[in-house]
């Protein structure tokens, strides 16, 4: 026996973060479009961009940020690109903020630019969120908030992106008391960042007391890591609100006890139309408390409870509570641990959502049974559905029959996301058949679905001729190199419609055996014939 010990040479693994992949760049553009077209305190002051204008601006912003970051990277070729990534993100944010503050470009008529924003007789929004994220002391607060001291017509204030300490809070307190009777919208998101807990709690108490009994329609307390102590620090403000239409409590570290405090402190939600509760630590017990708030909100139109660690029991409670919300238009429950039982419970209340236009159900562990129940319920309701997202739910071809029939019933569907499932070619064929006649369709994502050239071809042919279609994402599948070439040929007249294929694995599955292809095609044809469209 050879007793010698082999010698291994240590090698350093070098990872380059720059340049980003094409799919990453497209994802950034999509996120910017979503932000630019979402109502915000900026849109209330400067106007809201339409989809076409936002897409144009987002592409220009991303291109400019990419060039700036690339120029920086060229100066440090031996680096890992991390600083270039930071510049890319910062430049994108800066340029997007400029676009938000610019507002709609306006329209040209007879050679003259016609403003879409109209002439504001008075200034109604006071916003200090622009510029760098920073602490604010008493002296700076006195200067920055001076417009609040004299007579004014402000009905909306935004203190986001500035961290208030005790001295600054004491400066702003009398100002808030003097204008609270005219305020309708208050944004205090991210206004205590980096402060010690005791100081942050006291600052929140000061703001809460100063704004007590202000009759608000909009309140944003997101990004403050409040927990139960923080929620209760806003007791005076929350307890005095009876007319809220929009409430945002995102990324606030809201646990089970904090969620119970929210349900306890808000006396009335009968007028509430928007409730966003994203990225908290709620869990099942906290979900029970939020469900009580939802039950008392019959006017709710937009409910977001994504990434809140809610399991099956909490999911069932939320689903049952949503049965009272007959005006719901947008439902976002992504990234929770609902499972099949909660999915089935949700399917039972889906029929009451006659006005539903967007539903996000990705990463809920629905599996085939949960997905089938929801698809069957949606098929018979929500006639105006525009967005359907069921990504990452372990859906196979078995449930795809129901999903496809649901899709075929939605004549206004514009976005479909079934990525990160297990549809394979059989499921891809069913979906491609369902997409026929969907003239409004603009985006389809079936990436990471074990699809080979056989299924990819059917999907490509189903969308390539659609007017207004923008993106087919079938990346991270098992398409052969020859199949990739044929896909590019199908989209030769509109290459931008085909998403990146840089994560495709041509070796993922053997697709070159003619007998196997024939068998797959026969099975696909059989399934397609039985599909109800």
From TrEMBL:
The answer to whether the entry has keyword Cytoplasm is yes
**WPP domain mapped to chain residues:** 14-108
Q: Name one GO molecular function term.
A: GTPase activator activity
Q: Which InterPro entries match?
A: Leu-rich_rpt, LRR_dom_sf, RanGAP1/2, WPP_dom, WPP_sf
Organism from which the protein derives? Medicago sativa subsp. varia
Point to the regions of Acidic residues compositional bias: 502-523
**Protein name from the UniProt record:** Ran GTPase activating protein
At the top level of its lineage, which domain of life is listed?
A: Eukaryota
- Alphabetized UniProt keyword annotations: Cytoplasm, Nucleus
The record ties this protein, via Pfam families, to: LRR_6, WPP
Subcellular location per the Swiss-Prot or TrEMBL entry: Cytoplasm; Nucleus
According to the UniProt record, where is the region Disordered? Answer: 494-533
């Amino acid at each position: 026996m050879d007793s010698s010990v082999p010698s291994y040479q240590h090698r350093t693994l070098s990872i380059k973060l720059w340049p980003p992949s094409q799919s990453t760049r497209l994802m950034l553009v999509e996120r910017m479009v979503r932000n630019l077209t979402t109502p915000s305190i900026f849109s209330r002051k400067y106007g809201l961009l339409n989809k076409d204008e936002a897409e144009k601006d987002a592409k220009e912003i991303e291109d400019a940020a990419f060039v700036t970051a690339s120029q920086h990277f060229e100066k440090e070729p031996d680096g890992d690109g991390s600083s270039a990534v930071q510049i890319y993100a910062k430049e994108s944010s800066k340029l997007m903020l400029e676009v938000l503050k610019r507002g709609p470009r306006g329209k040209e008529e007879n050679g003259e630019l016609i403003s879409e924003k109209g002439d504001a007789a008075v200034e109604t929004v006071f916003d200090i969120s622009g510029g760098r994220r920073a602490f604010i002391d008493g002296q700076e607060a006195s200067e920055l908030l001076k417009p609040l001291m004299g007579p004014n017509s402000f009905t909306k204030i935004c203190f986001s992106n500035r961290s208030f300490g005790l001295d600054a809070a004491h400066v702003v307190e009398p100002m808030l008391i003097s204008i609270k009777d005219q305020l309708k919208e208050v944004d205090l998101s991210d206004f205590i960042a980096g402060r010690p807990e005791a100081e942050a709690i006291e600052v929140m108490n000061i703001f809460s007391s100063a704004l007590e009994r202000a009759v608000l329609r909009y309140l944003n307390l997101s990004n403050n890591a409040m927990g139960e102590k923080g929620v209760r620090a806003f007791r005076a403000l929350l307890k005095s609100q009876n007319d809220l239409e929009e409430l945002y409590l995102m990324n606030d570290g809201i646990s089970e006890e904090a969620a119970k405090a929210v349900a306890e402190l808000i006396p009335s939600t009968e007028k509430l139309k928007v409730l966003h509760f994203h990225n908290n630590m709620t869990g099942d017990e906290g979900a029970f408390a939020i469900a009580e708030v939802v039950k008392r909100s019959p006017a709710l139109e937009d409910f977001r409870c994504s990434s809140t660690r809610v399991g099956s029991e909490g999911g069932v409670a939320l689903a049952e509570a949503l049965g009272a919300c007959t005006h719901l238009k947008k439902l976002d429950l992504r990234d929770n641990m609902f499972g099949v039982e909660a999915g089935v419970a949700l399917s039972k209340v889906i029929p009451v959502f006659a006005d539903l236009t967007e539903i996000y159900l990705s990463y809920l562990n629905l599996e085939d049974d949960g997905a089938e129940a929801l698809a069957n319920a949606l098929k018979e309701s929500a006639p105006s559905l525009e967005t359907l997202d069921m990504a990452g739910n372990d859906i196979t071809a078995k449930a795809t029959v129901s999903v496809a029939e649901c899709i075929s019933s939605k004549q206004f569907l514009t976005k479909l996301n079934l990525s990160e499932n297990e549809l394979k070619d059989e499921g891809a064929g069913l979906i491609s058949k369902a997409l026929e006649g969907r003239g409004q369709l603009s985006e389809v994502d079936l990436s990471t679905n074990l699809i080979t050239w056989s299924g990819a071809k059917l999907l490509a042919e189903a969308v390539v001729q659609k007017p207004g279609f923008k993106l087919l994402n079938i990346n991270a599948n098992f398409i052969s190199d020859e199949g990739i070439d044929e896909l590019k040929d199908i989209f030769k007249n509109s290459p931008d419609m085909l998403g990146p294929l840089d994560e495709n694995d041509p070796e993922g599955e053997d697709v070159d055996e003619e007998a196997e292809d024939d068998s797959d095609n026969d099975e696909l044809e059989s399934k397609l014939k039985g599909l109800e469209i």
